[in-house]
Specification:
Layout (H helix, E strand, L loop, with lengths): L4 E6 L6 H18 L2 E6 L4 H8 L3 E4 L4 H4 L2 H8 L9 H8 L1 H10 L7 E5 L15 E5 L9 E3 L5 H9 L4 E6 L3 E9 L2 E2 L3 E5 L6 H5 L4 E4 L6 H18 L4 E9 L5 E7 L9 H8 L4 H14 L7
Parallel strand pairs: 1-2, 1-3
Antiparallel strand pairs: 4-7, 5-6, 5-7, 8-9, 8-10, 8-12, 10-11, 12-13
Helix pairs in contact: 1-11
């Protein structure tokens, strides 16, 4: 019996297009080596026609940001009755919105830095008194640290607003947490080993994320076991509270002064590039890249009622 046919969605028109192409290329290589039949689809306006023509058994969504991650593609695939890996429309739409994610965190008694939302085109000339300075300015619904700036004094405010406004209409202004940066990946019902991120830039910027040698990842993180366990517990609670499925990745800060933990956001379609954090965490748990891709693909196939072949 032939192996299932998987359409791999990648590219698209978001600010994270290049990263999506890298994730998609890795997924296709893995699926091909496992014997799956694959069709590459660069997401565009004719996506429905191309999916209908391909007639896949399931879809692997390798898109990042924009329509691929905000629930739009998920709703489309649901309407077409095509199974896909990852979170559904509702969880995707909520998690991509950093302010809505914070609301879920607060309702779930999960610690997160205080923040406000501002319309980028109507931003004040100085930082808001709450949260004050230093603060982090982020586009409300973008990933990969696109358009993110740390504002350490008021002179940097205008530039930060301009950077956020270049990619989004609304922005989050969040209290800056000085300390160590971590991420916790969730796979199925398990939290994978905690990864500590040590970027060469002042934070885990787009450059630090996707430039070889621009950041160091330590996995498992060199922290006390109870602290790692608490991070993992928080990650699982947020994953569940948002209604995520299959996998996600939650970013966490540890305050340098008192080691308090703060959750920043949840990524419902973690990158699967050679420099991505999720595959590193999986490898530390004994799950090689190809096995990870196959496991996620089986999640998509199972939603079509297709088991192992």
């Amino acid at each position: 019996m032939s192996m299932p046919h998987v359409a791999v969605l990648m590219g698209g028109a978001s600010a994270e297009r290049e990263i999506s192409l890298q994730t998609g290329a890795g997924v296709v290589t893995a699926l091909d080596s496992l014997g799956f039949r694959t069709t590459i689809i660069d997401s565009s306006d004719d996506l429905v026609d191309r999916l209908r023509a391909a007639k896949p058994d399931a879809v692997f969504n390798a898109l990042h940001g924009g329509a691929g991650e905000n629930g739009t593609i998920q709703a489309l695939l649901d309407w077409m009755e095509l199974g896909y890996q990852g979170s559904g429309m509702r969880a995707s739409a909520v998690a991509i919105d950093k302010w809505m994610t914070k609301a879920v965190m607060r309702a779930s008694d999960l610690p997160t830095p205080r923040a406000v939302v501002i319309d980028a085109g109507d931003a004040p000339s100085t930082p808001p008194k709450r949260p004050g300075v230093p603060c982090v300015v982020k586009p409300l619904a973008e990933g990969s640290a696109v358009g993110v700036t740390i504002v350490r004094d008021e002179s940097q405010w205008a530039g930060a607003v301009a950077a956020a406004r270049s990619v989004a209409d609304r922005m989050l202004v969040e209290a800056y947490v000085r300390g160590r940066e971590f991420t916790v990946s969730v796979l199925g019902r398990d939290a994978l080993p905690v990864v500590e991120i040590s970027p060469s830039d002042e934070f885990y910027s787009y450059h630090a994320k996707y430039t070889a040698g621009a950041s160091r990842h330590t996995v498992p993180a060199e922290i006390d076991v109870p602290i790692a366990a608490r991070m993992q517990e928080y990650a699982l609670r947020l994953h569940d509270a948002l209604g995520c499925r299959d996998y996600s990745r939650i970013d966490v800060m540890m305050d340098a002064t008192d080691e308090s933990l703060y959750l920043l956001e949840c990524n419902t379609l973690p990158g699967l590039t050679p420099l991505s954090l999720f595959p590193e965490a999986a490898a530390a748990a004994g799950i090689p890249y190809e096995s990870l891709v196959e496991r996620l693909t089986r999640c998509a196939l199972s939603r079509q009622g297709i088991g192992a072949r």
